[in-house]
Give the backbone structure.
Amino acid sequence: PIPVIIDCDTGIDDALALLLAVRHPGLDLRAVTCVAGNTDVDGVVRNTLTVLEQAGAPEIPVARGAERPLIEAVRTARHVHGHDGMGDLGLPAPARTPADVDAVTLLRREILASPRPVTLIPTAPATNIALLLRTHPEVTRNIERIVFMGGAAAVGNATPVAEFNVWHDPEAAAILLTAGVPITMYGLDVFRRVIVPGPDVRRLRASAEPGTRLAGELLAHRGPATGETDPGGGLGDAGAVCAVADPEGLITHRLPVEVSLAPGPSRGQTIVDRRARPGESELHEGTREQPLVDVALDVDVARYVKLYLAAVER
Ligand code: BDR
Ligand code: CA
């Protein structure tokens, strides 16, 4: 299996991502690190520990990371993820506490200890990853790829042009993008599209198995508020984990990407250069400020829904 580490702000859809990473036979989840984002970092740690216990994986190391972005103040998304940051489902408190090392230390240790290069899957503001890259740059020698949920080539969500994770810590996202390792941007252009149909969500919710049932509850909570009688639920961050387990389901284009760091309405935008180069399909050349990134522009929705259901109902 592919060694992976998830850096998250659990988070309804981060929880869906954790469930998939624990249960997919092709993935080996080696550690989980937590950062402030959807809710405060202590809430994220609690939610993460609870999800791993419900998933039947209480032994995976979990560490607490940054409690605020590099420069900005914390701006949580409780309006989306509920007061506890995970849908206020009334889940039990976790039985254990996090590791006694911080996220950066755990990330360094697990990356360098892995016999095979690790794929990092950040599904949150990139604060921990930026601190890791600046503190221990040698880790890049054992990173296969970073597949991160964040950014948007087209429309944003936190602002008209900026996606939440990048908007929450734009400087950190810029450091991540310029890490010098292969990067896949699983942004809003595909993030919103992968929706599990209503009947499948109902089946998951009716399961007697705690992890499967939790996936159903979380998906039901994410159902679009459109007044549909049987809405499905979006996979959100879990799509980035699908992209690692099954990269063929994603259509990416290798394009220059730059994070807007300027104050004002564009701050946190991922500016993706999609301009055609006459006569050449891949003439783009990255620069230090505008590295080449594999930007996800299309996704095989049915394939990822099938992959998700097969793994969490296993
Ligand atoms: C991202 O923001 C968070 O609220 C979600 O968990 C996801 O990682 C989407 O913009
Ligand atoms: Ca997230």
